[in-house]
Amino acid sequence: MIRKAIRRMSRMCDEAWYIFMGTLKLSCAMLLCAFMLLVSPDSGYDGAMLAAALAETPQGLLLVAFIASALLEDRNG
To answer: Cα–Cα–Cα angle for 61, 56, 53, nearest 5°?
Structure first.
């Protein structure tokens, strides 16, 4: 199943690949910022809440990017 998914991803059109990889990079940056906020010594309650929001948002972004990439891929064939 994983091999099939990797083969399918390797044959994605350029636009779908760009959307997927761009969103993956953005998600990683957001998670890194959330981690840095959590380990920061002067981060108070507001910093912890911002870190929680930054940690939750990438899941939705990746879902939207996955759907957009699949729609683009189906449209292009």
So the answer is: 115
